[in-house]
Amino acid sequence: MKHRWRKKSVTTLLVYLGLVIATVNASAYGVEAKSSDIAIYTPNMRESEEILDELSEVMPVLEPEASNETLFANYVDMMFEAQMFSATPIADKGLGNRYLRGESLAVYNQLKQTFESVANGSLASVRNITVDLSDYNIVYDSAALEKLGISGIKSEEDYKIVFQDFVQRVELKRVMTYLLRDCPYDLYWYDKTQGMSYNYEYDRTKDGGIRMNKMHFRFCVCKDYATTDSYTLNTEKISATRIAVENAQKIVAAASSYSDVEKLRYFKEQICEMTDYNREVVSAPHVFGDPWQMIYVFDGDPSTKVVCEGYSKAFQYLCDKTVFKDNIDCVIVSGLCGVVDSAKASGAHMWNHVRMPNGKVYLADITNSDQGNIGVGGELFLAGASLTSGNYQVNCGRSKIAYTYDDSTKTNLSDYYLKLSDLAYDVTPNCNHVNISTTGKIDATCTESGMSGDIKCLDCGAYLQESLYVKAKGHLYVDGKEGALDKYKVSDATCTKKAVYNKHCSACGKISDATFEYGEFDLTKHDFSEQVYLTSEPGKHYQKCKNCQRESEHLTCSPSKEVTENSIIPTCGKEGSYDQVVYCTKCEQVLRRTSVTVPATGEHIAETTVTKASLTKDGKRETKCLECGKFIKSNIIYAVKNVKLSAIYYTYDGKAKTPKVTVTDSKGNTIAASNYTVTYSSDRKNVGKHTVKVTLKGDYSGSKSLTFKVYPPKTKISSVKAGAKAFTVKWAKKSSQVSGYEIQYATSSDFESGAKTMKVTSAKTISKNVKGLKAKTKYYVRIRTFKSIGSTKYYSEWSEKKSVVTKK
Predict the structure, then answer these.
(1) 266 closest CA partner among 157, 405, 369
(2) Residue 670 β-bridge partners
(3) Which one of 19, 45, 431, 780 is separated from 190 by 20 to 30 angstroms, measured CA to CA?
């Protein structure tokens, strides 16, 4: 078995509606394909035209040059099977299955299956994806080689001819075309700018030919979804999506036995319990339909929060997946919401309308039914509303909440879903309440109260009894025989006392501080621990029981090893001393004591004190002897003179800016970083002025704040087209951290005299027609972006200038 790895150059011929077509230019050792050079499709590219002809009637509607994040968002919607507010992929049978045959179809299907495994997180590595073609018996024997114009494989040029024919035979360009067309969302992780590489696996045949067996592919993963290895996928996001889908399905299953109304109420309560409102983004523009929002509801992570579209989409999803006993229909509605007669303006909002079996429509605002919001009492769930001044108003406590439909809602939904009932839905219909259940019951313990539990009807969903507190039982302490257990024993019986036990609770086992005695005296247990009596016989002693005064037998003293006591450490000017003592190991009497004197050491006992240096004053470090007070050493700690940042100007690129800090003292010496901490402002990736605080520590005290600025990203002019006494300038759109653009034009190339400036206040605008100019005059044009923050504007660098000559 042989492997031939080959390098190839690949040029992307088409980037159009998410579709990339790559052609292969195999060298003598070719096979690595990399989409590094991007070119726009032009009609004279015959092979691309043929593919476009085949696809023209069934091209998907995708965002032009869709980002990996957008593709992933739509993949998440596919996993949830959500159909609202997101692009919906065409049925996934695929054009490849319609137009490819034989070995081309085999390559397509095997890669497609791999892409699906990578997308759903079951396969992480795309470093070596193997496609098996051994069943197709692709053999280049003498007859096949003769058709290629070669008599045998004798040189690298012969290999090149065979491999080029093989790539054409498997139609690799068309295979990749269809895969990128049929699996746009499954390939959200694929970095098309870096592309893929591949090699062949083949055998030599007996007649000198080649049998092609396998192809091995390697796909680049974009940095947002890759690990440190650019060929391995980080599956954390997919895992979160899968968990969210499973949790949503569990909620639907848990409510399967409930009544229709109780299902709706259960869905509302579960959503409000699993997530909280994200108040940090209230002032930011909302993008309705963000698929991540529904993940944040069901992902089981209490730290992830959502805004109104998350609540409404989650409720819609649970309703869509539920089989109701009667005809219940739920839709999502968007528009404005606010308190009537409030000084605060209404804000963009999303909620649900539920059409009940009685044919009437009711408002369900899940967001504002959550804890901490105005409708937590249930007034905004299956609520009725009155049509007043072009909006629907709902009574909620002492306030009226107004809901106003936006144009999209009024265009896409009829009165069938938008005309609300005047009265709220009656969620407690007549019922005998035979089928009941108790939830939340907690048994009372000795010390803690319990709960009787909520009792509700499973047929109509009505709560029949609210959970009540049950008083704690209190401890039942026991003594006597039933309480005389070893685990509660405090002390054993002695010659004068019975064994002592703690009283304990017979229910929970809690031990009381109170004790009781039980059992008999133990006449073998004496306490000889306190007093020792020496006998008249040297080296002998005896003891008395401190309880019954019984004397022990005479005991022979047993000397211990010599120990050192009463040690006094010698100092620089004073001598020290210690005692060498021998004890009896039984009675602990001193059998021998010898005192020893130690001469003075003459060495100082050093102690160092530090007076910290500051931004204006020197400090010092002094070392002196604790014994005699003599100063041994003194050093100056020079004051901090300069605190500088490595850079004070940046251009926005989406990354947080962290300039390095350098601190030097008044002598020009660099102060080690261990002597200060650096605190950066949290939003320092965005355009604006940011603060860096340096706090001195260690041998220094004080702090200093420095600033740096982030300017908006630079744009460039894509074209300048002349008109009659006018010209039209077009430029590259910059949507992040940009408020608008400034266009400057002048007849002088240095813009020093007569330059005029025009301001474009929308970041979405990408062209401007400049009129009222001189005819047949050469103008120089340049552009820059700006970002407004309060009353301050931050400008990017000017673009490269371009010139244009106006017409008559």
Answers:
(1) 369
(2) 664
(3) 45
Average pLDDT of each block of 10 consecutive residues along the chain (808 residues)? 30 26 27 25 27 32 58 73 39 73 93 90 90 92 90 88 91 89 84 84 87 92 86 79 83 90 92 85 48 73 83 91 92 93 83 94 95 88 93 91 93 92 79 74 82 73 62 77 78 84 82 84 74 69 77 77 88 87 81 88 84 93 85 90 94 94 94 95 92 95 94 95 95 93 94 91 94 94 95 94 93
**Contact partners, residue 762, CB within 8 Å, separation at least 6:** 740
User: Alpha-carbon distance 370 to 377, whole Å?
Assistant: 9
Smallest Cα–Cα separation from 35: which of 19, 11, 6? 11
Residue 9 · residue 195 · CB < 8 Å: no
Contact 220, 230 (CB under 8 A): yes
Integer CA distances (angstroms), 292 to 75, 80, 191, 305, 347, in order: 11, 11, 21, 10, 21
Which pair of structure tokens corresponds to residue 247?
């949790």
Q: How far apart are CA 680 and CA 448, in angstroms?
A: 48
DSSP per residue over 275-297, as a string? --B-GGGTTSPP-TT-THHHHHH
- Write the single-letter amino acid at 236: E
Task: Say how far apart CA 304 and CA 317 lie, in whole Å.
Answer: 19
Question: Could you give the CA distance from residue 164 to residue 171 in angstroms, rounded to a whole number?
Answer: 11
CA-CA distance, 529 to 381, in Å (whole number)? 78
Distances (CA, A) of 285 to 196, 230, 280, 348, 793: 38, 34, 12, 9, 21
Cα–Cα distance between 663 and 640 in angstroms, integer?
7
Provide DSSP, 446-487.
Answer: SSS-EE--EEEETTT--EEE---EE------EE-SGGG--GG
